[in-house]
Amino acid sequence: MLACIGLLFVQSCAGVKTTGEIMDAETAYNAGVAAFKDEDYFEAQRLFDVIRLQFPTTQYADDAQFYLGEISFAKKEYVMAAFNYGMVRRSYPSSPLNKTALYKTALCYYELSPPADRDQDYTKKAIASFSEFQAIFPLDSLYAESGKKIVELRNRLAERELITAELYRSLYSNRSAIIYYDAIIDDYPDTEHYETAFAGKIESLIALRRYDDARSMIDIYKKRFSNGTLKTSVESSERMLPQ
């Protein structure tokens, strides 16, 4: 019995010693980074949480918070990743990791952005985050890449409006369709759906017998798209107008 008690005491002491060895911020951080590189995300998260909760004022705290975002991103848990990256900026506003954290936040929303026929809330958040990155870091090497992402995402938003417009046209609700064509014309002139919105609105105006409005739109179309891909279609619509 005494031998067993002695063995348990030794094991208990050994456990305390092991815990003590990793309970300083630097050792915990290095162990967490090693676990992350080994893709042992459970252990990495545990160690970075230790730093975040027990050593929030050390030089490793912002790195630990950033790595929590990296863990979630690696696991494709993009909502949680965006939250953790955001916490870097909120909790450590002077951290040199803020630039990367902002860009990675934008990437999280980019990954969450769904096809055009679904709700586009994450698409809008991605555009806002990439735009914020460009505004704060105009000379950064990722500025151009952010711009490309914004163009892609804005095309998706415009496509969403186009899908809705064409749905209303299929339901013979041309007045409603025009509202969504106008949304593209007014808000997304830089997208690949801009010309299509003009052509669709012209056809809808003709269907509503708003011939004068249709003529005005055709004149604007000709000025803006002298070599447009839909030029033949618009000319066909023009021939449908009463003389």
Structure report:
The protein is mainly alpha-helical and 243 residues long. The protein has a domain at 18-99: Alpha Horseshoe (Serine Threonine Protein Phosphatase 5, Tetratricopeptide repeat). It has twelve helices and no strands. Mean pLDDT is 91; it is low at 1-22.
Structural class: mainly alpha
Helix content: over 70%
Identify the CATH architecture of the domain at 18-99: Alpha Horseshoe
**Approximate shape:** elongated
Main beta-sheet strand count, sense and barrel state? none
Task: Return residue spans where pLDDT drops below 50 for at least 5 consecutive residues.
Answer: 1-22
**DSSP summary, beta strand count:** 0
Instruction: Round the mean pLDDT to the nearest integer and report it.
Output: 91
- What is the helix tally? 12
The string of secondary-structure elements, in order, is HHHHHHHHHHHH
Task: Tell me the CATH superfamily of the domain at 18-99.
Answer: Tetratricopeptide repeat domain
Counting copies of identical and different chains, the oligomeric state is single chain
End-to-end separation in angstroms reads 110 Å
Topology:
Elements: H1 2-22, H2 25-37, H3 41-54, H4 61-74, H5 78-91, H6 98-112, H7 121-136, H8 143-170, H9 174-187, H10 194-207, H11 211-224, H12 231-239
Summarize the structure.
Helix 2 (25-37) packs parallel to helix 4 (61-74) and helix 9 (174-187) runs antiparallel to helix 10 (194-207).
